[in-house]
Design brief:
alpha/beta, Rossmann fold, N-(1-d-carboxylethyl)-l-norvaline Dehydrogenase, domain 2, 2 domains, 10 helices, 47% helix
Length: 258
Amino acid sequence: MKIALVGAGNLATHLALSLVKAGHHVVGICSKTGETARSLSLRIGQESMATSRLDELPKADVYLIATKDDVISTIAEEWPGNLSEGLIVHTSGSVDINVLAPAGIPYGVLYPLQTFSKERDVDFKKIPCFVEGSTTEDTMKLMELARSVSNKVYTLSSEHRRLLHLSAVFACNFVNHLYDIAEQQLKQNGFPTEWLQPLIEETAAKIKTVSAREAQTGPAIRKDQRVIECHSAILAQEPQHLLIYNILTESIYQTFHQ
């Protein structure tokens, strides 16, 4: 298929690389300034047109929007009339499929459930991808596209996709923020952050064989009030971190002891 990308960030980068590997042709890339589009074009090596203007994109079979969620509706509303054929698709976990309707062409969603960074390699074949089309025909076309890059492809409505995205925020974004807090605490005390790596790796690995609830450990589940009070005293000068600590401690306690 001929693919045009709107966006050149983390997700767009991995999508472009995976699509090229699967034999698709990325004919154009549009980004806000055009600079990131040019960088991505050079990286994938298909001489894709790079631009900052939607109306300069070449005609394509699929237009993949991989941008911030807040601008997807604006892109659809301002979709250029010269791109009146093909399928316009967003990649968001939380945005309804119908925000694309104003574009005036067939539309859909292709949501890869993964966290992406440009500098990190990922095996896209292992990433669950969730698709939804405005018609059955559009859904089938998206299934074909998704299956060319992933071995795990499912259909999912916008309502259910939002629920999945919420779970992903808890499992990934919030957890990563807690990693950041832990790193800050170590650095403030002159400790190397790599001391936490084995713990982080085992925590993630463990839930492949047991449920997260079964894997829970720590002072809250043990009702170790003395340790909790000690931690709270240490965090007394960091009210934001203390608030997070108290909320999570109470949540764990309520889960197992109420």
